Amino acid sequence: MTDAPPQTRIRKRNTQAILSAALSVFAAEGFRGATLDQIAAAAKLSKPNLLYYFPSKEAVYVELLASQLEHWLDPLRAIDPDGEPVAEMLSYIRSKLLMSRSHARESRLFAGEVLRGAPHIGDVLQGPLRQLVDEKAALIQGWMDAGRLAPSDPYHLIFSIWALTQHYADFAPQVTAVLGPDRDPVDEGMRFTETLYRRMLTP
Fold it and tell me: 132-162 pLDDT, tens per residue?
């Protein structure tokens, strides 16, 4: 296998630099407050160079949200139909909690978009996101019907996991204010959620 052409490597490097810079700028300024000049400066690129890769601020924002959502959904995709149901669900919950620690800014950026009515990614939510949730909800319902998970509504089960795990990212200042700076909310949350969902899901 030969190395990728230099231009491909440069494109990938610059695209990642732009998206990383955009995450910092959008997290600090919001979509309306952020500017292409700020993103270009944070990426250490000229504005014309940035515009070579993305034609507008909105294009950068949409790509950032879409790529982060893709990554955010990886643990849901990883639920194994051939695995032990309770263990698979607990593994999903653990992965989501760890992402609340490692991808807190991404979570807050996504939450802000959704709170505004998802004007930029509504099609993604109603398309690929919904398809994946439908698929996993059907799997979970099958496990419930077979008596391998305690019965509940699989969609609202998934919603509850999202709400609980992402709270540690989206409301981190509140969590830290209540617990204090010397406690690890994700580690403690891991123990709590494992107990909660194991009891809830075990038939």
Answer: 999 999 999 999 999 999 999 999 999 999 9
Angle (deg, nearest 10), helices 6-33 and 57-72: 100
Three-state SS string over the chain comes to: CCCCCHHHHHHHHHHHHHHHHHHHHHHHHHHHHCCHHHHHHHHCCCHHHHHHHCCCHHHHHHHHHHHHHHHHCHHHHCCCCCCCHHHHHHHHHHHHHHHHHHCHHHHHHHHHHHHCCCCCCHHHHHHHHHHHHHHHHHHHHHHHHCCCCCCCCHHHHHHHHHHHHHHHHHCHHHHHHHHCCCCCHHHHHHHHHHHHHHHHHCC
Higher-pLDDT residue of 30, 157: 157
- CATH 1.10.10.60 domain residues, the chain: 6-55
Q: Per CATH, which fold does 6-55 belong to?
A: Arc Repressor Mutant, subunit A (1.10.10)
Other beta carbons within 10 Å of 11: 14
Q: What pTM does this model have?
A: 0.87
